[in-house]
Design a protein that fits this description.
Layout: H1 14-50, H2 54-81, H3 85-102, H4 119-130, H5 132-139, H6 141-151
Helix pairs in contact: 1-2, 1-6, 2-4, 2-5, 2-6, 3-5
């Protein structure tokens, strides 16, 4: 009985690598999509409180870029300081769960009402305590998945 007698050929070679890589591709895509969806959602929550000025969008953009950089730094440090792949996955998975649990559904009242004289400082403070930590963890997912996929040798 040969490999074709069952009606189909076994999957091997390049096709097998593409099929095995599909979960990595889907995860990276979903992570990147979530990162890009969160940015306008948060800015839209802050815009009515601050009058809808371009300043709100500019400050939000700078804050998200800073959090993205922090997420990439975390991904770099995790892959270089924690040598065990399973520990990296467990740690990042736990942080993703925590990030999902603390994602804000509304702006924090910790800073009170926005100060009309300094709305940018208020927005930076609200951003730093509400969305920045979960956003940094979520933004680290794509580079971590890519680093883990590279370690598979495919």
């Amino acid at each position: 009985m040969n490999q074709f007698s069952a009606g189909r050929a076994p999957v091997s070679g390049p096709l097998q690598h593409r099929i095995a890589g599909a979960p990595f591709v889907v995860t990276v895509f979903l992570s990147a999509a979530l990162v890009f969806l969160v940015q306008p959602m948060f800015a839209r929550m802050a815009t009515p409180l601050l009058g809808g000025s371009p300043n709100v969008w500019n400050v939000s953009l700078v804050c998200f870029q800073a959090a993205l950089l922090a997420g990439y730094a975390y991904a770099h440090l995790l892959t270089h300081l924690v040598k065990s792949l399973s520990r990296q996955v467990m740690l990042h998975g736990a942080l993703l769960v925590v990030a999902a649990l603390v994602l804000p559904f509304e702006l924090t009242g910790l800073f009170g009402d926005p100060d009309p004289a300094r709305p940018a400082l208020w927005l930076i403070g609200v951003f730093a305590v509400s969305i920045a930590p979960p956003f940094a963890i979520i933004s680290a997912t794509a580079p971590l998945i890519q680093a883990w996929y590279a370690r598979t040798g495919r």
